[in-house]
Amino acid sequence: MIKLYKQLIHISLIFTATTSFAQQVKLSANVEQAMQQVSPDDIKAHITYLADDKLKGRGPGTEGYQMAVDYVVGQLKSLDVKPAGENNTWLQTVRLRKAFIGDANLSISNGPANSTTITKGKDYVVYPNPLLPQVSVNPAQLAFVGYGISEPALGYDDYAGIDVKGKIVIITRGAPDKFSSSVSAHVMNASQILKVAAQHGAVGVIMGSADSAARVANISRGVYSIMDDKGAVSVSRTFYSKQLSLYASINYALFSSLLEQAGKNLKEILPQLKAGQPSSMLLKASAGASLTSTYQDILSYNVIGKIEGSDPKLKNEYVVHSAHLDHLGIDKPVQGDSIYNGAHDNASGVASVISIAKIYHSIKVKPKRSILVVLVTGEELGDLGSNYFAKHPTVPVKSMVADVNTDMPTIIAPLLSITALGAEHSSLEKNVAQAAAYMGLDVEPDPEPKQARFTRSDQYSFVLEGIPALHIKYGAKTADGKNNLNDFVATWRAKYYHKPQDDINGIFDFEAGKKYAQLNFLIGYLVAQDPAWPTWNPGDIFATR
């Protein structure tokens, strides 16, 4: 009952904010006219080109992706956007490395006379090392550290009271029930798990499955990372540092047996962890490994443009409008079609960002801050391109004050309400409320909190660098008053999402696309005009700067 009361209060505050901020947005006649320059026909044309079969699904490093890059650069040039990539070009080079596991053996023993016989591909999988072609991991004691979370400020620390220095930690992915969905997704992220393990001195990480029916991952198609120009690993979800020489996963049966050897029951431990009770312990077993890795290196690109601000000082600060340009390329045929065109995901988002640039083109007096237009590669591979840009931006990282990301806005019905993923973590919530009220849109809480969508797209890469960010998605409101748009979206998603059927012949509402672009523009414009920086909420888990 208390939880429901808090939810109602939050909804009430959102509604109050939306109405109370409405009068604060006063745009000049020129800006209002510029917003009307967004054309549903233009949005359709952009999507039609980017999702055409000739681009072959815009897979990073392919000829089709390069065609998409050339198209976007051409559009931005026509709108007087200036290049802001490397060496005064439009591009930032992204060096993708696809790593494949060769020979790989994981050995587990709880004493010289008692070794556990396990089978690669059935009981365990060892992930390739993107940096070292050959790795040998000396036997080290195993330690179970629950979820692998260390957040004392949130009242939970799996590493408290246990020394894992020089040990291999076993972790099961999850988070206590008391954590919010976005916080849970953050601490469950593989990169975060590896980072925390390394900070506590571990030399390897093994992920234990909590699902007795699940199989270990099939990584035969390779695992992606990004290398920097010096040959070091810059971005990876499976590698953190040379210190962590092993990253592997094991099935439920093996995981459970290791705990049983220590006198513990996995079925009893899992509910304790969900209840916020760490159950970390040293195990009686040790593990060692050997592995070889081979690589396929792929060049891809982020596209970056700049619209210079009008304030002599604030023009050196940036509001970012981002979207991913890549999709899945050519893959397994579905109903005879093997080209994954990605019309909604994310040609529609790219079209929206181009439309935002068109609005700025029509504004005579630019906003105080500069606008950075960033179209990234490798989102479908794990937010790789945006992560690389956020870590190695072509402008000073501390000059980026906010990111407004657009990923698959799902323009399949009239846009009457929205949810702003991640806005609740920062003062950007105010800007969303102002912009939505100006445009007559309701703001609703995330209807799918368990999907943790805030940490599943490119805005999360900026968040990890301490930059407030958000991602606008559709709300539930419908014209017939049933307010069940989520049901329609679920049906649509089952047919089109990540399938070749996501092409220009699918369901579209280009007027909704126009509204999305206008709304995202206005959120960014309000931030660009405000002399004060967006701020994280006090004590927020993402408040790192």
Automatic annotation (TrEMBL):
<feature type="signal peptide">
    <location>
        <begin position="1"/>
        <end position="22"/>
    </location>
</feature>
<dbReference type="Pfam" id="PF02225">
    <property type="entry name" value="PA"/>
</dbReference>
<dbReference type="InterPro" id="IPR045175">
    <property type="entry name" value="M28_fam"/>
</dbReference>
<protein>
    <submittedName>
        <fullName>M28 family peptidase</fullName>
    </submittedName>
</protein>
<feature type="domain" description="Peptidase M28">
    <location>
        <begin position="302"/>
        <end position="506"/>
    </location>
</feature>
<dbReference type="InterPro" id="IPR046450">
    <property type="entry name" value="PA_dom_sf"/>
</dbReference>
<dbReference type="Pfam" id="PF04389">
    <property type="entry name" value="Peptidase_M28"/>
</dbReference>
<feature type="domain" description="PA">
    <location>
        <begin position="149"/>
        <end position="213"/>
    </location>
</feature>
<keyword id="KW-0732">Signal</keyword>
<dbReference type="InterPro" id="IPR007484">
    <property type="entry name" value="Peptidase_M28"/>
</dbReference>
<dbReference type="InterPro" id="IPR003137">
    <property type="entry name" value="PA_domain"/>
</dbReference>
